[in-house]
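Support reply, case 0932

Customer input (verbatim):
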Amino acid sequence: MFDILIKTLKTGTVTTKYPKKPDIAPQGFRGMPELIPDKCTFCGECAKSCPPGVICLIENGQEKSLTLSICGCIFCGMCEEVCPVGAIRLTQEYELASKTKDELLTIIRRTA
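Our regenerated output:
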């Protein structure tokens, strides 16, 4: 019993001050995907390669829209790898809590 107490006192504090001082994600961390509307050509390669299917390309006449839902994203990075123009990238963002699913939805549209 005393051995555990002594060991604990020698070790000291090993936790972080998270809420007050956010942790920095390590190099190579795959966080929230981000769509860059100016670069997107609406080719649909990201939607085809998305394993959970959370990226959808919708063509409605002259209007095209690309929808990305973070709710089911597994942060695999396939969308970033296959995008020929670099219109989607994984950020370092990992704090993704929200009150509604709509806050985790990104939609970009283009009318031809």
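We compared this against your earlier run and they match. Two observations from our side: The two ends are 73 Å apart (CA to CA). The beta strands are 33-35, 55-60, 63-69, 88-90, 105-111. Please reopen the case if you see a mismatch on your end.
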